[in-house]
Amino acid sequence: MKTILKQLGIDSLNEMQQKVLSLGINFKDLILHSPTGSGKTLAYLLPLLSILKNKGEVQVLIVVPTRELALQVEGVFNQMQSEWKIASCYGGHAVDIEVSSIQNRKPEVLIGTPGRILDHLSRDSFNPNTIETLIIDEFDKALELGFQDEMERIIVQLNNLTKRILLSATRMDSIPSFTGIINPIVLDFVPSKSSSTRLKYNLIYSEEIDKIDTLYNLLGSLSDGSSIVFCNHRESVERVSELLDKRNVINVAYHGGQEQLIRERSLAKFRNGSSLILIATDLASRGLDISDVQHIIHYHLPLDRDTFIHRNGRTARWEGKGDVYMILNERESIPEFITEDFTPYSIKNDEVIHRTPGWVTLYIGRGSKNNISKGDIAGFLYKQGQLKRDELGVIDLQDYCTFVAVRRNKVNELLHLVQNEKIKGTKTIIEEAK
Description:
Elements: H1 2-8, H2 15-22, E1 29-33, H3 40-51, E2 60-63, H4 67-79, E3 86-89, H5 95-105, E4 109-112, H6 114-122, E5 133-136, H7 139-144, H8 148-155, E6 163-168, E7 185-188, E8 199-206, H9 212-221, E9 226-230, H10 234-246, E10 252-254, H11 260-271, E11 277-280, E12 293-298, H12 305-312, E13 322-329, E14 343-344, E15 359-364, H13 374-383, E16 392-397, E17 402-407, H14 411-418, E18 422-423, E19 426-427, E20 430-432
Parallel strand pairs: 1-6, 1-7, 2-4, 2-5, 3-4, 5-6, 8-13, 8-14, 9-11, 9-12, 10-11, 12-13
Antiparallel strand pairs: 15-17, 15-20, 16-17, 18-19
């Protein structure tokens, strides 16, 4: 266990993770209620190491509502560096590649979104009769997104289930019968109140109906930490991002209408510090592995209480503290479902100074499926790129590309040095990720 935690960069498990692990494998059905950011992924992945037994057979199926969560879970599982293999499947990914991965790699754990799992079941990509453990992560989100029919059609084909695990960031009064869960063990780690004691709530009034000037000034007044700005619509995300771009405020946009590579690039830039600002729809409020976010900004009012809570859940994680800002124009008022106490927040013109991130993200046109590792990338950039240890940041290895953070003052020199150089004997694209 100590070795796995070290590989994950974790000193110890939290109370919730310890409780799940203490159950061992001696349970049939488990429901875990725990808020976003509490470490649920690791809580259910660690026990799998004791459950898995037959090499080359899919024994655990993990159903998730979004491809981002699928990639996150796959990444954590791979970081554990166990003897077992995992494969993921999700929309926007080539089905033929997934079929090949499942049938040739022969994973013991399969993770995917409901529609894509059904697709593979119809293709006989894997044998459902070898699956004994079903895990549905973000079950409440899956229901909210309308995946009940797909989940029901999946479960009815799993004839040999012995364990069912449902995870939810919110309490569920009743569990749908299609899950097959009867008399489960229920672990409830959802606070009776929101994390108000760790959050500071700030209220900002915009004199104009269009809030962009207020947002610009607010972002410029924040002297530390990263920020997520939540909008209610994809078009609004694009508009706000473009308007900030025109004012030379470095930011990235993230929403469900983007191509997968663009979304992955945005997340990579935000995670590695190349952008301190993420403009997003509520797609970013759950199921993403984004740590150390200091500021949550409600550019548009949340539509309900759950949305408000999940947005705020991107900060104050792991018992940390965070700041929440709500921007209201003259026609708006705080919704009745928001009962937290807000403090008026004022901005002085001489305090508006927009920070330039110290990192820049490079795009490298090779990834893990090209038989390349983070070590290969790092070694190449140290040797051919002449980088020092503190000049190379996060390496985000994707299937067929890699995003790498490099100190801003080293980018031009680095790109000149690696021009026409080969990584593991092969030339590839190396450029700044735009």
